[in-house]
Amino acid sequence: MDRFLSNAVNRIDAKGRVSVPAHFRAVLQKRGYQDLYALRALDVPALDVGGPDLLDRYEARIALEDPFLQTADDMSFFCHGDGSFLKLDQDGRITVSDFLRDHTGITTEVAFVGRGHFFQIWEPERLQAHGAEVRARLLKLRQAAVASRSPERAE
């Protein structure tokens, strides 16, 4: 499998490191990643993490913008100024730096969440709350779609 799927919570060790889940490390190894690109998510207290191709994707999008307009500058500031490289050690661990902690609120445990071509790093309780919000939004959409198709709906 070449996708980041599922989720896991791992404890930060005494040296401030956390193990990336084995099934995520398998994807990283298959893709040949040694360094990870991490970006503070724009709308949630999480980090988006992937290989250099994730940064390449953002830079390709920036290149489509007029370099003299504010949008290109803002996008570059976000992708480069709010991004960082994380180094995997030989045992598949990353250091939980202030860069990770400040945006996410992580203290003692790290939640890893698969997002297909990348994964996210969350503080576990915040992830749980976010997951409940996502499910509620999707349920509301499903119920609205069912109600709009129902021939017995009230008029």
Task: Offer a quick outline of the entry.
The protein is α+β, with helices and mostly antiparallel strands. Helices cover 43% and strands 23% of the residues.
What can you see in these coordinates?
It is a single chain. This protein is of the alpha+beta class and 155 residues long. Helix content is 43%, strand content 23%. Strands 1-7-8-4-3-5 form a 6-stranded antiparallel β-sheet. Strands 2-6 form a two-stranded antiparallel ribbon. Helix 2 (52-63) packs antiparallel against helix 3. The longest helix has 26 residues, at 124-149. It is globular. 21% of the residues are buried.
In CATH, the homologous superfamily goes by the name: Transcriptional regulator MraZ domain
Tally of helical runs: 5
Helix content: 40-55%
How many separate domains? 1
**Strand ordering within the main sheet:** 1-7-8-4-3-5
What structural class is derived from the secondary structure elements?
Answer: alpha+beta
Sketch the topology as an H/E string, one letter per element. Answer: EEHEEHHEEHEEH
Strand content: 15-25%
Low-confidence stretches: none
pLDDT averaged over residues: 94
Taken from the alpha-carbon principal axes, the silhouette is globular
Question: How far apart are the first and last residues' alpha carbons, in Å?
Answer: 48 Å
